């Protein structure tokens, strides 16, 4: 019994380490998004950290339009980054889950 418990604890610790490694790797995965007309472009990491924002000069003339563009494009970029992040971390976590009775809902 204790051998099984120790094995599960080791597997959980290994999975936790793999999750941390995956989080670090996702800092280098870049997600690009732009407005439909290409006037605003943003780049995020898969961990949802903003790396760059490019604004066309024509948007600088209309503050309200620029704000609208920023909200729309940032939300699309965050949604994409979240999907990548969730998929990558979910795969690592699912792969590392020990076979604990009653917790098979995660598989």
Automatic annotation (TrEMBL):
InterPro entries (alphabetical): YbaB-like_sf, YbaB/EbfC
Keywords: Coiled coil, Cytoplasm, DNA-binding
Localisation: Cytoplasm, Nucleoid
Single GO MF annotation: DNA binding
Coiled coil region boundaries: 5-32
GO cellular component: bacterial nucleoid; cytosol
Chief place where the protein resides: cytoplasm
Subunit structure: Homodimer.
Main function: Binds to DNA and alters its conformation. May be involved in regulation of gene expression, nucleoid organization and DNA protection.
Family: Belongs to the YbaB/EbfC family.
Name used for this protein in its record: Nucleoid-associated protein EG849_04150
Lineage: Bacteria, Pseudomonadati, Bacteroidota, Flavobacteriia, Flavobacteriales
